[in-house]
Write a structure and sequence with these properties.
single chain; mainly alpha; two-stranded antiparallel sheet; 6 helices; 2 strands
């Protein structure tokens, strides 16, 4: 972080001396092809990106303690996708979390 702070102040000083408005550190602009994501691309060679987003959302709902919403996210997956290891593991965790152990 020290290097970033030093660069920041160096660029600000340079901008002040050159009488140009300071706009922050110069970062390269991404190319348009870097900004596009296809939802049908596969993740790890198995799971389409769209389905991976649903599984990740289900994981995050579980972290928030919302197992019903996690199961709802997983319901949008096809039956074949639900049989893959990652979605199956998340679904099992959601089912275990939604059925509390009786006291």
């Amino acid at each position: 972080m020290k290097i970033k702070t030093l660069l920041h102040s160096a660029f600000r000083t340079l901008a002040r001396r050159l009488s140009v408005p300071w706009r922050g550190l110069p970062y390269p602009q991404p190319r348009p092809e870097q900004l596009t994501l296809e939802l049908d691309q596969t993740v790890h060679g198995q799971l389409p990106l769209r389905d991976a987003m649903h599984v990740r959302s289900a994981e995050l709902w579980l972290k928030l303690g919302q197992s019903e919403l996690a199961l709802h996210e997983l319901q949008s997956l096809s039956a074949a996708t639900r049989q893959l290891p990652w979605p199956r593991q998340v679904e099992q965790a959601a089912l275990n979390h939604s059925n509390p152990i009786p006291a």
